[in-house]
Amino acid sequence: MITQILSMVLPVLAMILLGRLCATRGILNDERHAGLKAIIGDILLPVVLFNAFFTAQYDGKLLLVFVLVFSSCLLALLAGFALKRFVKPYDRYMPLLMTSFEGGMLGYALYALIAGQDQTATYAMVDIGQTMFAYTVFLAALKSAEGGRMSPKAMISNMVHNKACIGMTLGIVLGALGVHKMIAPTAVGTVLTELISFITAPTSALILLVVGYQLNFSKKLMKPVAITLALRTVVMLALFGLVSLILFAIIPYDKLLMLALMLQYTLPAPFIIPLFADLGEDGEYVSTSLSMGTLVSVFLFVFVAAFSLL
After folding, report:
1. What phi, psi does 150 have (nearest 5°)?
2. Which of 19, 26, 87, 180 is most solvent-facing, going by the fewest CB within 10 Å?
3. Average pLDDT, whole number, for the chain?
4. pLDDT tens sequence across 203-245
5. CA Rg, the chain, in Å?
6. Residue 24: how many CB atoms within 10 A of its CB?
7. In angstroms, what CA-CA distances link 262 with 109, 251, 297, 306?
8. Which one, of 202, 200, 62, 43, lies nearest residue 121 by Cα?
9. Model confidence pLDDT, tens digit, residues 126-139
């Protein structure tokens, strides 16, 4: 079992370390890094999301998972507001670091390693709830933390112009209409599957390389960051237990779905925080929290990988 766990964990660590090496040795600079992120965000990730939601099974189970995950993200945000006093004076963005998950840049890549690229539809079932939360409630709370207000029109505009959301939406529409079921047995379905597999093959490696490049640590912020991550871990553990308990009390136990839930609740907060907010003097705290949160997720991934082999 140890060998099997290492075969899943070491590639993750190796690519993150390579990304960090690329940063320290100047192999990647900010301009090249931005180019890689554009390739991932504008091409690879939209295709991954399209395929995941295109091949998903649309039934009552998906709706139930959506409601549970969305609700848990809302509860985590409320917990963040209740606990933010523990990290003063870095409490302005702390509630945002307590909720939602970096599914796009990490979740799909890690789930593919433990369950296979052809099983991302199962992870999509879990991810859709937090994705909708991230582009609605989360962004509104982020804007509020800046002292502003985000209108429903602005939220819709963000989703419409985001390539990953476009891929997800297209996949949901076509998947819900049953297009995948119609073409899957045909030659068109076979060609489309092979084409998507070829395009998305380097996604996991490139994402982890980018994650390694953007790791950033500030020693002076280790105490508030450690408190933030400890509180997030406890809250997410409790929410994972609650969600899985309710879910599998209603539907039959599904190990792949349980793996998706386990992985989801170990992921760091969304990397979109620095993209959609002018963080000012809190930028270093947020960046260090996301970086340390990523390392915590990689550590917890070991246990998820071990569970996948049971």
Report:
1. -105, 125
2. 26
3. 87
4. 878 878 887 887 777 788 899 999 999 999 999 999 999 999 9
5. 19
6. 9
7. 14, 17, 11, 12
8. 62
9. 998 998 898 888 88
Angle, alpha carbons 174-168-148 (nearest 5°): 140
Q: Is 302 left (phi over 0), alpha (psi -120 to 50) or beta?
A: alpha
Instruction: Encode pLDDT of 253-309 as tens digits.
Output: 999 999 999 999 999 998 877 766 677 778 888 888 988 898 899 899 999 999 999
Residue 47 structure tokens? 């295709």
